[in-house]
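Handout, section B. The chain below has 516 residues.
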Amino acid sequence: MKAATASEMRGIDGIAINDYGIPGAVLMENAGVAVVRHLETIMEPLSEQKFCILAGKGNNGGDGYVIARHIANQGGKVKVFLLGEKEAVSGDARVNLDIIELMGIDIIEINNERVWDKVKVTATFADCLVDALLGTGFRGEISGDMAQLIDIINAAGKLVVAVDIPSGVDADTGRIYGKAVRATHTVTLGLPKPGLFLYPGAEYAGELTVADIGIPTAIVAGQDIKQNIIMADMIGKILPRRSPAAHKGMSGRLAVVAGSRGLSGAAAMAAEGALRVGAGLITLAAPASLQDILAVKLTEIMTKPLVETLAGTIGQGAVPEIIELASGNDVLAIGPGLGGQEETLAAVRAVVAAAECPLVIDADALNALVGYTDILVDCSALPVLTPHPGEMARLTGLSIEAVNADRVRVARQAAGEWGSIVVLKGARTVVAFPDGEVYINTSGNAGMATGGTGDALTGIIAGLIAQGLSSHDAAVAGVYVHGLAGDVAAAAGMVGMAATDLIKAVPAALYGIKGY
């Protein structure tokens, strides 16, 4: 499913109006009707119920006036509060404002201090508040009367339906401009907006519905929209179908280079993630001193001892062994639990530069690339990098706050500069490709905020590549399967969920998507 930025949606609306001759008033009518239809599904019948519509001076407010008209026609009781003066409303919004005024619908301008008590009382006794204040075009900090009105909406404790996007949420990034409406439901118009899926905006959107407002599909198809929302039906088409006659050799060969003294768990979880997603033959290469520990932890996974440093991390002498191992496997995953020894980091860089199979690079292997991302451009196959925000900050020189403030832009820019697939982990994971295409994941939950889940994701993505998926498809499918496995595991309780619970739930997640 495509997601349009605010500017892209304005462009689509413009083409519909200017090139296809669809009047803006028709799109506004369709938008208002779509919201009313949604209201009918969540609080039918509308008759005799009380609605408080909070409207701005722009087109979002115009949608609110259409909503008011249709609710009144069904017998609902409506009060419209306009933040500002009627004279400031123009265009299609003004047409619809004039209509509801002629209908006798109560329209109250919020233009002096005496009105605020009336707003509070109406919000308190309404059955539903409709947020038609700002829409997608707003930029800047929420302050003054708008901030006061948003506080009233959020404090009312009522059903809140946002038109297109909750006021105060950035449509592109999900950023909150100081304050934002906390909606129970959001009816977004035409196409969804990235900020409705990215946190913190996603937390303010409530239950999301995408409404068709009559924009010709050819217009959308003709746009180069590069933001995509990952959904289950998409992943069902990507995941490989296993032959009834399959054997382990047909399910892919995978090598994992991971672990150090005290961090054997990260190595084990990465390998088990690959196992649970269906990879046929997995070899875990780790410092030689970890072999006894890994033999106890793992039963179905082969292990290979590597030359190690005095600190119990992989040494420079292991590089030839790892390169040889990579040549005999379909994919190499490297990084979980490797440690930060400089000799180890240098060994990682040597492997990344020389390996000819696809790479999945995570954790300490990412730290090895700080200041050396130029070597990624020359990799034989498109590498997959899986940084969390802290690792992304180190790689880019940005702060963690800057990374999270615009996750799509940061991931997209890095993928282009590094010639790599960038999986920026977090609540919502973003997958970015060198051509600018971006996918935003929708699965997963807060129970996954625990050590080891990132290691599992490394193994899951690598395991899918081993089974024949392109690195592109494996990254997209891997993040969704990983999140869905977290959702399955969370059914037994989110708080206290462990990464190993997620790993064990991967087969159930696959079964839910693909039926195997």
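Note. The CA atoms of residues 185 and 207 lie 5 Å apart. Compare this with the example in section A.
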